[in-house]
Structures are given as structure tokens and as C-alpha cells.
Amino acid sequence: MFKRNLLAVCSGFMLSTAWGLTDTASHDIIMNVNEVAMLKVNDSSMITLTEVPVLVSNTTKMLQYTSVVAVGATRKITAGWASGSSPKGTKLNVTATSPIGGNKRGIGTSYDFINLSAGAGNVVTGIGSCATGFGGGSGASLTYTLSVEDPELLEAGESKTVTVTYTMTDAS
Questions:
Q1: How many CB atoms within 10 Å of residue 123?
Q2: Local structure of 128: helix, strand or coil
Q3: pLDDT tens digits, residue range 21-67?
Q4: Which is the most buried residue in 44, 86, 127, 133, by most CB within 10 A?
């Protein structure tokens, strides 16, 4: 009888071990959304503006950006050049259109006709969490315009090169 009871208990234990018990393991995963600020001009090739004193424009560049910020925070994009100047008697302006593609929420507000110079000027402000996309034709279209301010200062053959730099920063 003892052997039969022991056999029943052992069989029950083996069956419960094989079919009746479960085991779980778990761990915590912390998911954070970090701030992001990515900025790109669709290509870095040089553009040439000639034919002064006629107003000359170029629209081959797209400003593409992605931003992730905390609730209520915004960013801005400024443009300027580090050194150099436009030819005497002229000025270089840039206009950014409303972005094409991406999500439209938080995309910011574009400024019309920013005079580019060694000082930075606002191109897009009020940027929240958004993405314009980085594909061809996505982003804010940039229009560069070279215009004559003082024809008497123009010199035939004068040529100047500047590097326009776009910077995304937290809005203050």
C-alpha cells in the first residue's frame, strides 16, 4: 500500500511538473524619447547667381529638417554666413516656403525675404515636433535672390562666394 501511495504521489508530481506548472520571467524596459534636431540642405552643390543688375533668383535647394521637443518647446532655424560679403551694391536674400511632405503639425512658420549677411536671420520659427522628410522634393523650398541696392557701386567682373549656414536652435 505504501508503495502504491508513493508511486501515485511521484506520478502526480511528475505529471504536474510536466503539464501543470508554468514559469515566467520578466524585466523592465525604459523607453525614452530624446530630443532630436536634424537639418539638411538637399544637396551641397554650389549655385551661381549672375546677370546683375536684373533681379536673379534660384530655387534649386530644399531645407529639410526633423525636430522632437518637449511639450510646449519650440525651435527655430536661422541662416547667415560666417565671412565674406555679396558684391558691392547688391544684397542676397533667402525665402523659405511652407514645407512640402512630412507631417504638417509643428512644422513652423517661414519668414519671407531674409537679408543674408554675417548676422543670422530667422528663416523658420515655431518648430515643434515634426519631420519634413528627406526625400527629393521634401522640405521647405529655398529661393535665393540677388538684387541691386545701389547700381553706382556695381563693378563688372566682381565675383564673391559665401557659404550660407543654416542652424536649428531652441527658441528663446
A1: 24
A2: coil
A3: 434 444 454 545 566 677 778 777 777 776 556 677 888 888 889 99
A4: 127
Beta bridge partners of 110: 124
Longest dimension (CA), the chain: 122
**Residue 19, helix vs strand vs coil:** helix
For residues 140 and 108, the answer to whether their CB atoms sit within 8 Å is no
Burial of 169 (0-12, 13-18, 19+ CB in 10 A): exposed
Give the start-to-end residue ranges of the domains of the chain: 36-153+161-170
Q: Is the pTM of this model over 0.70?
A: yes
| Phi–psi pair at 4, nearest 5 degrees | -65, -40
Q: What are the residues facing 75 on neighbouring strands?
A: 127, 170
CA 124 to CA 75: how far, in whole Å? 9
- Contacts for 79 with CB less than 8 Å, ≥ 6 apart: 94, 114, 116, 120, 121, 123, 164, 165, 166, 167
- List pLDDT tens digits, range 93-111: 889 988 776 666 788 888 8
What dihedral do alpha carbons 14, 15, 16, 18 form, nearest 10°? 80
